[in-house]
Amino acid sequence: MSTLLARVVTSARTATSSMSPDVDDWLAGRRGQPFESTPIPLDELTRCAGWRFAPGTGNLEHDSGRFFTVEGLHVRTNHGRVEEWWQPVLVQREIAILGILAKEFDGVLHFLLQAKMEPGNAGMVQLSPTVQATPSNYTRVHRGGRTPYVEYFTDPAGDRVLTDVLQSEQGAWFHLKRNRNVVVEVTGDVPPRDDFCWLTLGQIHALLQRRNIVNMDTRSVLGCLLGAAGGPVGGNGSDAASGHRGEPSGRLTMAEVLGWFTRRKSAQQLSARLVPMDSVVGWRREAGRIRREDDGGFSIVGVRARARTREVHGWEQPLLAPHGPTLAGLVVRSIGGRLHALVRAEALPGYLDTVELGPTVRFATDDLDRTPVEHRPEFLDHVLSASGTGSVRYDVVLSEEGGRFLHAETRYLVVEADDGFPLRVPPDFQWVTVEQLLSLVRHSYYLGVELRTLLLCLTGS
């Protein structure tokens, strides 16, 4: 076991710490502050808040030219039952820092998390990384206060970088969005500010069993840390727990997994072209929002936010508002004594390299009633029918990024299949060991954001 893996395992097995407050009381205090997130019509947003619909394109943009824009996307693909569509998409060309500080107390690694208000968060306040900020934020384009602790990630000289990797966000809603997922271990004194606290990985895993506590960015960064550590940290029957060592081979070798992934990327042709919002087919801009003509999917809405704990105490902005929760379901089973996950090579228009690995099923559940049985995703019925049975290993609703999405919730579900579940699966799917996934998450653009969350939750269970 590597030194970093041993330290991460120790942290994962530590359920309490004298360095941490009573998390429930502390979070209740943070959530009890006078925050505001109020929906406002887009027309009001563009009249008073520095946002505008650009002449000639209809793109929703900020007067500063920074932050993000809402633009149109025209997609063509040779894969799936829908070959062409138009949609709005969030365009954020800046690479945000998602950074967590780590420090050892009494021989145990702790992680500095922030109780951060975001206008789109379910519950308003969730546990975010130490720093969750775009360059526009930490260079103070908003003319607000400085971003606490950002200097540890912009210039980590003298500190130990445990992981530092670029990863994507939701490829269905962002266009080519990338974040820097980074953990820096410090040895000097770093006093936590009022909205920050030190937690062990074991404490964080316990919070991941509860709805809408640990935010998407924290989950993504810690998933990357497990990859850097080189193995799972929980007693889940996977390689580290069962004594396997060496190359993380399973039903396929790593070379075979990479070959399959490359073939899927080569086979799935997808063209995603930014176009003016005014030219997007099938969508309508109204005074209050931008919506799809059949009211499916999501809308673009405006919000007014107030939070004295943020660098700017009040602001307005657009958000992407899904019309219902998403299901991210992962089927796992033991093959040859090793835990395998059934992953899908998923082509999404916002991915930098077209295809990343996703869960077995990713599906907007508000579309269930309007989707004929023959058009539903493979394995959806198996995942849904397992709900509430002893085969469910993880089942919690967690929020996606509240700085860009309004109440975007995903039900993360891990289902263990028995030996009767087929080993032969359709071409877009593959059985991959947990350790192979951990090896891949060390690198950019292999695992999508939902699979990074599921990997963290599964390996910590």
UniProtKB/TrEMBL annotation:
Residues 22-225, 255-458 form the dTDP-4-dehydro-6-deoxy-alpha-D-glucopyranose 2,3-dehydratase domain. It comes from the Bacteria. InterPro entries: EvaA-like, EvaA-like_sf. One of its GO terms (molecular function) is lyase activity. This is NDP-hexose 2,3-dehydratase. The lineage of its organism: Bacteria, Bacillati, Actinomycetota, Actinomycetes, Kitasatosporales.
